[in-house]
Amino acid sequence: MDTNRHPIELIGARTGNCLRVAIAFEEADLPYQVRLLDLRQGEQHDPAHLALNPAGKVPTIIDHLGETDLILSQSNAILLYAAELKPGRLLPLKETDRAIALERYFYFLTDVIAVSHSAFFLRSLGSHAASTALDERSNAALRDAARFVKATRYMGGESFSLADIAAFTIASVNRRHIDWNADAHLKRWFDEVEQRPSARRGMKAFEHSNG
Ligand SMILES: N[C@@H](CCC(=O)N[C@@H](CS)C(=O)NCC(=O)O)C(=O)O
């Protein structure tokens, strides 16, 4: 663990967007401290949280840098910030390798996770046909990612990267919609990431707050 910096405060709850951040901090060995919000109780709308994130959402981080704090929302921007703080840990150093890892990262963000979130939203409105169609589209994109891990060990190449973190959290949430017997490569990849210490610790980060 990096002891030369203050822990980053990670304000969140046990949701995919927050778990991605926790896994990234674990993988990058960045010290962090979780502050748990109860979303069902609406704590994300408390004035103290709105002062940090006027959208009333999580995750939000506070990086205590000294004179000014960095306050950042948007899980995927936070992941990129973590990658910049620890070059080579979450994205490859070589430009062409990094370009591929980022291509895959954005594939999971836009073609899998965003579509799945839209399905969730439509379901909450009672639009079952539309939400089912979007769920199927998201799951198909996830299944299609088997071709990435057929070609390389990880989703974004031969090293673990943000692409794996994005893919892993959504695959965990939607694991019952994937036919794991249908693709050995996807299963091999999922099993390996699930056992990774950063993923194991990150997935538990919001079980007990330490803030
Ligand atoms: N695009 C944002 C989405 C943030 C978001 O929607 N967070 C959800 C939890 S995953 C939230 O705060 N929901 C509480 C609410 O909307 O009241 C991100 O990636 O951080």
UniProtKB/TrEMBL annotation:
Protein name per the record: Glutathione S-transferase, N-terminal domain family protein
PROSITE patterns linked: GST_NTER (PS50404)
PANTHER family documented for this protein: GLUTATHIONE S-TRANSFERASE GSTA, GLUTATHIONE S-TRANSFERASE-RELATED
Source organism (scientific name): Rhizobium leguminosarum
Top-level taxon of the source organism: Bacteria
Keyword annotations: Plasmid, Transferase
GST N-terminal domain ranges (all copies): 5-90
One Pfam family hit: GST_N
GO molecular function: transferase activity
UniProt lineage: Bacteria, Pseudomonadati, Pseudomonadota, Alphaproteobacteria, Hyphomicrobiales
Family designation: Belongs to the GST superfamily.
Record bears the keyword Transferase: yes
Transferase found in the keyword field: yes
